[in-house]
Write a structure and sequence with these properties.
Pfam families: EntA_Immun, HTH_3. The chain has 209 residues and is an all-alpha fold. The protein is built from ten helices and no strands.
Length: 209
């Protein structure tokens, strides 16, 4: 689980506040916020409630009980696999693409589902992550599918004014690398924001708007 300091920092960055900006809203010094984020001190119960209000999140997010950090160690252990995949010429299949990409999708989906007040756009994104996760094993061109998924996520996030915190952005960046391997085979000549592209003709598609 995340330490409280990391959880506070990630949520502060997510809402676009500096340490000084957060301190001003709470009538505190910047040093007080810095001490929290370095786990040198902690907000008391009353301050924690105020903090969750300013940062627009559940108190449990700030306590770290709804966040995960396994992605950090996992990303490090996967670097060798990713580097090997990315040195292959475009269009060259690699047996680890699907397994590694599914792990990234699982981690990204898990982090996004912790958002306390998800927008329709964010719900669309998690729907598509789950759908692509299911389809990757049988996809004829998994890189092209990943390429379309990443573009869809970017378009939806922009429409919902959602800025990915560092952990989510790191995972999305890794998935974009895989999508780039599709080359011209991954070109999609339709609307990237079309959710229906990830669902078969007879498959039900959740509607979030």
């Amino acid at each position: 689980m995340l330490k409280m300091g990391d959880a506070i920092r990630l949520q502060r960055e997510h809402v676009g506040l500096s340490q000084s900006g957060l301190a001003e809203k709470l009538a505190l010094t910047r040093q007080a916020v810095s001490n929290w984020e370095r786990d040198l001190s902690y907000p008391d119960a009353d301050m924690l409630v105020q903090l969750s209000t300013v940062l627009n999140c559940d108190v449990r997010v700030l306590l770290g009980t709804k966040q995960r950090v396994e992605w950090q160690g996992w990303l490090r252990t996967r670097l060798q696999d990713v580097e090997e995949i990315m040195t292959l010429p475009k269009g060259t299949p690699h047996p680890d693409v699907v397994s590694v990409a599914k792990q990234y999708i699982k981690e990204l989906d898990g982090l996004l589902r912790y958002e306390p007040n998800p927008t329709p756009q964010l719900l669309d994104i998690t729907d598509v992550l789950a759908q692509v996760y299911r389809k990757l094993d049988t996809a004829k061109n998994p890189e092209a599918l990943l390429n379309r998924m990443v573009n869809y996520i970017r378009v939806k996030a922009k429409a919902g004014n959602y800025i990915f915190p560092r952990p989510q952005e790191s995972l999305l960046g890794e998935l974009a690398w895989f999508g780039a391997k599709a080359g011209w085979n991954g070109a999609y000549m339709s609307d990237f924001s079309d959710k229906r592209q990830f669902y078969g003709l007879l498959e039900p598609m959740p509607r979030r708007d």
